[in-house]
Amino acid sequence: MIGQRLEVRQGQGLVITPQLQQAIKLLQLSNLELEAYVESELEKNPLLQRDEGEAGGEGPAEPAEAVGSGDANELQFTEPSGDAERAMDARDDDLYGDAAPGDRDADRKRDAGETGEQPGLSDWSRAGSGGGMDGEGMERPDSREATLWEHLQAQASSAGFSAADHAIALTLIDATDESGYLRGDLQEFADRLGVDLARIEAVLTACHGFEPTGVMARSAPECLKLQLIERNRFDPAMAALLDNLELLARRDLPALRRVCGVDAEDLAEMIAELKGLTPRPGAGFGGEPAQTVVPDVHVRPDPAGGWRVELNTDTLPRLLMDKRYHGVVSAGARSETEKAFVADCAAQASWLVKSLDQRAKTILKVGSEIVRQQDAFLAFGVEFLRPLNLKTVADAIGMHESTVSRVTSNKYVSTPRGVFELKFFFTAAIQSSDGGALHSAEAVRHRIKAMIDSEAVGGDILSDDRIVEILNETGIDIARRTVAKYREALRIPSSVQRRRLMKAG
């Protein structure tokens, strides 16, 4: 018979309290978003006040040192409050709690290096835009227009660059102003990244193919030249005109006709073409004004060897709960409503102070481990980036991957080689078939390209399956679909198309 009845069942489950949500969200806030959030809390909670004194007590964690990879010393951190520590580090099934179910597997594979893509690089176009909180503690949807830098970063991520060249491209994009011009000396970039000037120039040439046309030019004549080349209107006469724009500014048309070797009618057409170009290719992009990146972590050489990792205390808000005022208002509270309000403010203030302290310790711990893993890059340059994923860092510091993922979102580190987002240091890896060391995905890409380039000499066209066999023989465990994906990223035709091209040639 169908009927209704009451049953009592016992089960276990994790309840996401408002305080736990707050602690988790604090991790992924950038320093600018954190400052705005703290200001909001100061306005709402009368028991909170800024600590104007020296760091210590309930303030942020003190800086710690990260030793070189060959040193056996460990970083030491004071033990935080149990509640704050548990709130900061998420459970296993919370790693993708804010992602759509269809996105979770792809993100897990990307972080594990299975897709052949570089973790974090594909979504750098969203840097600085996430993690905000409104008055009700919910994340705000980001509906603003993409900025020029986000537009360029997205193109760089899909340009098929190697890890080293991608890092160079991101550095050049960061040096591009709001008008679309590259500011800075290429030799300085080369010295900072530890590569040859020719390598920088080659990456810049590739970036000149990005949209909008003319972006990342170093001067107005170069910007106009790139646009004329795209229109197939760049010739010696036009080159002479671009080299003498000061004559055009003075309206010295007779002198222009002489240097360009054209008559008055041709010169008028050339000037009309120039007027149809865009001297400021970046002006068409909206979005928020460019914000100067303020690093959350500083990395400096340690005189004793290795690297010293320090928090940027300027970005860490120091808060205290005013216990004296708390005692005054508690004594003056008469109704139950007033007592409940005071108690709630005290609990919120205490929790926020502890959460900010634990956030600082967590950022320092994650940043120190990343520096430990990527010390070769800091010492020798961008070519020495090691394969690294979230799990490696999480296992090393005893936290969950979701915690590391939140910490590396919208956080920046200042190093002797420049300022980088923490996600910059995560690069993909290919497993070794013999259980040995991991192979960099970029190194495997270059090996595939070298094998295909040698076909012209040997005359034997290699299929994707044959490439997989050769790589497996050398200890690289890779799937055929990954080889095809790398080949397409390198803009190399399939074996059938290459065979046809060889016969036609």
Quick tags:
single chain, 505 residues, alpha+beta, 5-stranded mixed β-sheet, two-stranded antiparallel ribbon, 23 helices, 9 strands, 49% helix, 6% strand, extended
Brief account:
The chain has helices spanning 18-28, 31-44, 82-88, 101-112, 148-157, 163-174, 186-193, 197-207, 220-230, 236-243, 245-249, 253-260, 264-275, 323-332, 336-373, 375-380, 390-397, 401-407, 441-453, 455-458, 464-473, 480-489, 495-504, and strands at 48-50, 64-66, 297-301, 307-311, 319-321, 412-415, 418-421, 429-430, 439-440.
Structure description:
- With 505 residues, the chain is an alpha+beta fold.
- It is 49% helix and 6% strand.
- The protein has 23 helices and 9 strands.
- It is extended.
How would you sum up the global shape? extended
The helix content, as a percent range, equals: 40-55%
Main beta-sheet strand count, sense and barrel state: 5 strands, mixed
Structural class: alpha+beta
Mean pLDDT: 76
Taking the alpha carbons of the first and last residues, their distance comes to 82 Å
Low-confidence stretches: 54-84, 90-143
Tally the helices: what do you get? 23
Strand composition percent: 5-15%
Biggest sheet strand order reads 2-4-3-6-7
The Cα radius of gyration reads: 28 Å
Compute the number of strand runs: 9
